[in-house]
Amino acid sequence: MALIPGLIKGLGVTGSTMMRTIFPGGVKKPIPSPVKGAETVQYPHEKEAPPTRARGVIALHEENCTACMLCARECPDWCIYIEGHKEKAPPRRAGGKPRQRNILDRFDIDYALCMFCGICVEVCPFEALFWSPEYEFSEPRIADLLHDMSRLSEWMETVPDFEDYEAGSQQKKLKVPPT
Ligand code: SF4
Ligand code: SF4
């Protein structure tokens, strides 16, 4: 029984919001105009500027990627596909042993599966993945939501400049590999 007053109050709030939306002019001008009264943005006629750190699309900084597979292993949706091969690299010091280097052949993200959790960006130890606030990449064909390495690299142009972390936040440790 204690629920009834809360229910009535809730219905009252919903009803008054609905009336404000349908009749934004109020009782003085009771002309229905829900588009004018709606709090929501009338996309695509109107566009909101997303905040700098919005999770729009993931961009790949190809040169920093070592094909370590960490992001693909941690992705809960298994929607990152990476292939690579090993190449011999010159030793770091004269007389040293030649090194092996991973070369990236394929890096795809399937945005039809991605849930934008950001785990891949967080776990990448080499600063190869970044969020871009760009969100307009819908496709009529679901298969076209698979972005390959070149498309993911193109998104880098839309990644905003780094802004200082807020006080008290945890900073990510940069580990860019030696070239
Ligand atoms: S944001 Fe999450 S779901 Fe999407 S690719 Fe990265 S780890 Fe996978
Ligand atoms: S975690 Fe980073 S460096 Fe490793 S494969 Fe993913 S993007 Fe490349």
Keywords, please?
179 residues; alpha+beta; Alpha-Beta Plaits; 2 domains; three-stranded antiparallel beta sheet; two-stranded antiparallel sheet; 18% strand; binds iron/sulfur cluster
Mind explaining what this structure looks like?
- This protein is α+β, with helices and mostly antiparallel strands and 179 residues long.
- It has 2 domains: 3-37; 57-158, Alpha-Beta Plaits, CATH 3.30.70.3270.
- Helices cover 22% and strands 18% of the residues.
- The chain has a 3-stranded antiparallel sheet with strand order 2-3-5. It has a two-stranded antiparallel ribbon with strand order 1-4.
- It is elongated and about 90 Å long.
- The mean pLDDT is 90.
- One iron/sulfur cluster (SF4) is lined by residues 75-77, 79-80, 109, 114-120.
The tally of helices reads 5
Contiguous uncertain segments of 5+ residues: none
Helix fraction by DSSP (H/I, runs of at least 4): 10-25%
| Assigned CATH architecture of the largest domain | 2-Layer Sandwich
- Using DSSP, what is the number of strands? 5
In the CATH scheme, the class of the largest domain would be Alpha Beta
Tally of separate domains: 2
N- and C-termini, Cα separation: 70 Å
Major sheet characteristics:
3 strands, antiparallel
Radius of gyration using CA atoms only: 25 Å
Physical arrangement of strands within the biggest beta sheet: 2-3-5
CATH fold topology of the largest domain: Alpha-Beta Plaits
> Which small-molecule ligands are present, each listed once?
iron/sulfur cluster
Mean pLDDT: 90
Strand content: 15-25%
Inertia-based shape = elongated
